[in-house]
Write a structure and sequence with these properties.
Blueprint: H1 5-20, E1 30-31, E2 38-43, E3 49-55, E4 58-65, H2 68-91, H3 99-104, H4 108-133, H5 135-160
Parallel strand pairs: 1-2
Antiparallel strand pairs: 2-3, 3-4
Helix pairs in contact: 2-4, 4-5
Length: about 160
């Protein structure tokens, strides 16, 4: 039999942390069984916490740990990634009928600059949100984001050499 109390405690803390960064309604994972699409937090009988994403009825494990703090960090990496992307999108002007054609006429440099700008801006937002919750989470994510930016720049520079 699975003790529901650790999951209840975990989910209450997740809700508290989500409120601290004004996570939008529906941004946090569901607690318990993976019915329906989206993120879910589960706990197994051996005490292993899992963050699962379910799409079209097919669940996939994003992260798992017996340490609830490790899983909580991963939950908020996912939540803040989504919040940062939404913040970026909300800053952009709405597209009109001619915009897709304009986008096709961008130079390689303009595309490269836009990709780097997106990575930089979303990383800053994510790190600021994580810092409100736990500075160690923000510091670890900053290292990851810096490596990701390096990879994006490398990929884009390799692509321009083709």
């Amino acid at each position: 039999m699975i003790d529901a109390e650790p999951l209840r405690v975990f989910c209450a803390e997740m809700e508290r942390l989500g409120a601290a960064i004004h996570a939008p309604s529906g941004a946090l994972p569901h607690c318990g069984a993976t019915t329906g699409a989206g993120y879910h937090v589960l706990i197994a009988s051996d005490g292993r916490y899992s963050l699962v994403y379910s799409e079209r009825g097919v669940p996939g494990v994003i992260a798992a740990s017996t340490d609830p703090e490790v899983l909580m960090e991963r939950v908020f990496v996912e939540v803040t990634t989504n919040m940062a992307s939404t913040a970026f999108a909300n800053e952009q002007p709405p597209l009109d009928a001619a915009d897709p054609l304009r986008l096709l006429r961008l130079s390689e440099d303009e595309v490269r600059n836009a990709a780097v700008d997106y990575q930089l801006r979303t990383s800053r937002v994510q790190e600021a949100l994580l810092n409100k919750l736990n500075p160690d989470w923000a510091a670890r994510r900053a290292v990851w984001n810096a490596e990701r930016l390096r990879q994006v720049k490398q990929l884009l520079s390799e692509g321009s050499q083709d």
